[in-house]
TrEMBL record:
Pfam families: MeaB. Transmembrane segments: none annotated. Keywords: Hydrolase. Belongs to the SIMIBI class G3E GTPase family. ArgK/MeaB subfamily. This is Methylmalonyl Co-A mutase-associated GTPase MeaB. Coiled coil: none annotated. Its EC number is 3.6.5.-. The gene is meaB. One of its GO terms (molecular function) is hydrolase activity. InterPro entries: GTPase_ArgK, P-loop_NTPase. The keyword Hydrolase applies.
């Protein structure tokens, strides 16, 4: 058979196959399941304590998609009646204080006592460096494998406000999933401490031995946020020095305003390596909870935090909607240039922008 005839037969075969495919009945694809049903399934999965469904729920809330945002808030609304039943503990510390080691040891002890522990990590600096804080799971390998624990980083979304929103919502989802101890770790420094203080019940500050030298680089404001100061790495040669440091902090607390009404800030030593002082930290946390609940400040603080969250979200939404229009963004750039060139005052530019 010549090459020309062979080519013709091939083309005829292709055409026949094509005609045969057209003759086949079209396959009917099922429409996606109703969104409400999906949300209900995720809600049920979260309530069952499934870490898989909890992860899916958090991912839904973190999505920037308008539809996902709507579904995420519907999911959260369904789960709200099952939230608020944990103790929320913020943990910060000076560089090298061993926050991750402390959290892992503390978390392992709590799960051993029958508690379920969620660890949420905040790192505002990652929006500047582009770094990932998913490393938290590698820093806490043992706790990450614990079936009674859940570790999740909070994405910055470029702003502290973004962290604030996502961490609060993640916290609520964790509570709905049955986690009764929520540990919020601030990895960054500066404003993140105030941020975390505004979303937890109790705030722990980890420090090292030698309070006098350390305080040279520590802001007084951070000390005033703390409900307890844990002198960490109180082991080996540091054991005796740690006791002295605890006494020094206790003396300092007399000159500072307590962070929580009805509670006097405490200081104690602990070692995650030797696991000494860790049970005492939990005992103190429970004393704090009992004391503050009896005084009525527990409920008051949570209500104030929710009100602050509501108002901050109004500001975030206004900012987002304002810059949602391309024309307005361009006008901002134009006015900004005029202000920098001394063609307009800042007040005049603002007046033009809002006319």
């Amino acid at each position: 058979m010549s090459r020309k005839k062979n080519s013709r037969h091939v083309m005829e075969g292709v055409q026949a196959a094509h005609d045969g495919m057209k003759a086949l009945p079209r396959k009917k694809f099922k429409k996606p399941a109703d969104a409400t049903m999906d949300i209900q399934a995720i809600a049920d999965g979260v309530r069952s304590g499934s870490r898989l469904y909890l992860g899916k729920a958090i991912t839904l809330l973190e999505s920037s998609s308008a539809e996902h945002k709507k579904n995420g808030q519907e999911l959260l609304n369904q789960l709200l009646p099952f939230t608020g039943n944990s103790i929320r503990i913020g943990i910060t510390g000076v560089p090298g204080a061993g926050k991750s080691t402390f959290i892992e040891t503390f978390g392992e002890m709590l799960t051993g006592l029958g508690h379920r522990v969620a660890v949420l990590a905040i790192d505002p600096s990652s929006s500047l460096t582009g770094g990932s804080i998913l490393g938290d799971k590698t820093r806490m390998e043992q706790l990450a494998r614990n079936p009674k624990a859940f570790i999740r980083p909070s994405p910055t979304a470029g702003t502290l406000g973004g962290v604030h929103k996502k961490t609060r919502e993640t916290m609520l989802l964790c509570e709905a999933a049955g986690y009764d101890v929520i540990l919020v770790e601030t990895v960054g420094v500066g404003q993140s401490e105030t941020l975390v203080r505004g979303m937890v019940d109790m705030f722990l500050l980890l420090v090292l031995t030698g309070a006098g030298d350390e305080l040279q680089g520590m802001k007084k404001g951070i000390l005033e946020l703390a409900d307890a100061i844990i002198v960490h790495k109180a082991d080996g040669e540091n054991a005796q020095l740690a006791k002295k440091t605890v006494s020094e902090y206790k003396q300092m607390m007399h000159f500072l305003q307590p962070a929580t009404d009805s509670w006097k800030t405490r200081s104690l030593a602990a070692s995650s390596v030797e696991e000494t002082g860790i049970p005492e930290v939990w005992k103190m946390v429970k004393e704090f909870e009992d004391t503050v609940k009896v005084s009525g400040y527990w409920k008051k603080r949570r209500q104030e935090q929710t009100k602050d969250w509501f108002r901050s979200m109004i500001t975030d939404e206004l900012h987002s909607r304002f810059f949602d229009h391309a024309e307005r963004r361009q006008l901002v750039k134009t006015l900004e240039t005029q202000v920098l060139n001394d063609e307009l005052t800042v007040a005049q530019a603002i007046m033009q922008l809002f006319e």
